[in-house]
Amino acid sequence: MCEPFGFAGSAYGSVPVAVFFCAHRLVPIPFSLQSRYCPCTTRKWMQFCTGNRVWLRWFECRKFERNIIGREGSARLIKELLHPTAAERFFFDNNGYLVLEDFLSLSHVEALRAALAKTVAHRRSARYQREHEPAFAERLEGANTRIFHLLDEDPLFLYLLDYEPIMAYVRGLFNEMPHLHSTDAFCEVEKSASHGLGWHIDGIQEGFRHLGWPIPLLQLKVGYYLSDMSEEGQGNLTLVPGSHKALCKPEPEDLQRAELFAGAVQVCGRPGTAFLFHNAVWHTPGPWTRAEGRREMLYYGYEHPWMLACVEQWRYDRSFLQSLSADQRKFFHGFVFDPPEYRWG
Predict the structure, then answer these.
(1) CA distance 76 to 70
(2) Which residues of 43-56 are buried (b: 16+ CB within 10 A; e: fewer)?
(3) Do 73 and 24 meet the contact criterion of CB atoms below 8 Å apart?
(4) In terms of Cα–Cα distance, which of 149, 219, 139 is closest to 184?
């Protein structure tokens, strides 16, 4: 365990820091986070304050996230834990989405792309069989692929479920105890019928419209670009900023227009870009106009712990569910386990 052995009297950016002694190195930690961080162990407990709440989190080093350890890595971790900022929250509340550029490292992205390629080959194999059908029909024929229920395919996909840097945003913008809603992935190389014309809002019963307008924030979708989506015209997520506050739905003919809504934006980003959006934001895969376009991306959906709006939670094999860690189990309802876990949230 690291113990503070002196105050450096300096600042990390504009944040005062203490210096914690470790057998391996000195690590600056902001006093404002009230943190204890030991980089010489594989498990770290970290206590920090946000507003009037005190949080306790532990972080595990993974082989592909070794850069968390060390001076540069600890700086990155500290920065990530300070989110969402007031500016990010204001933008999300008013626009219904938030883009986080270069959120995943390139090495992390390459590992995820390899895992996705392996998963697509597995799902397209004639030998592939699933004990439980996915919540929605997968697209396994033709050049483009869409698959669901990713968590048991590769540890890298499971790791993203509770990836602490994105959890800071999910908890801060959505719910302190998020549950899994869904996971899916796209690997596309050519135009399909939905590109530019698949306008919708997320949620059961026509996007929770029976609750009235404006539709509340009931699901938070997180996307990760794995391929280079820095240019438009390759199925980029396309949305209408602020449309989550609309008091009515668009005219049906507007949803079928080849040209985009006035004010619609295509979300562009380099590999590793992450984005989050409100379930009631009108969105679609964008137009496909680039001859060499390619869209590889992952989606993770989260919902409130008192909801059950997708069947993915109980469509995994029992052995996989039983293998989840205590923290990962918190993203599932207790009834999916054997024996059931009698708990709330």
Answers:
(1) 10
(2) ebebebeeeeeeee
(3) no
(4) 149
Tokens at 46, concatenated? 């970290």
Domain ranges of the chain: 3-82, 87-336
Tokens of 31: 């006093």
CB 274 within 8 A of CB 220: no
3-state DSSP call for residue 250? coil
pTM above 0.85, yes or no: no
Q: Any alpha helices (H) in 136-197, and if so which ranges?
A: 155-161, 164-173
- Contact partners, residue 253, CB within 8 Å, separation at least 6: none
* CB count in 10 Å sphere of residue 109: 21
Per-residue tokens: 309: 């709006």
| Alpha-carbon span 316 to 215, nearest angstrom | 30
Mean pLDDT of the chain: 80
Helix axes 71-81, 164-173, angle to 10 degrees: 20
Residues 291 and 282: their CA atoms lie apart, in Å, by: 26
Residue 198: pLDDT above 80? yes
Compute CA 334 distance to the chain's CA centroid, rounded to the nearest angstrom: 22
CA angle 296, 302, 308 (to 5 degrees): 125
Task: Report helix, strand or coil for 303.
Answer: strand
Exposure string for 151-188, b = 16+ CB within 10 A, e = fewer:
bbbbebbbbbbbbbbbbbbbbbbbbeebbbbbbbbbbb
Q: Which CATH number fits domain 87-336: 1.10.10.10, 2.60.120.620, 3.40.1080.10, 3.40.640.10?
A: 2.60.120.620
The pLDDT tens digits of the residues spanning 290-323 come to: 999 999 999 999 999 999 988 888 889 999 999 9
Q: What is the pLDDT of residues 108-140, one digit of tens each?
A: 999 999 999 999 999 999 888 877 777 778 888
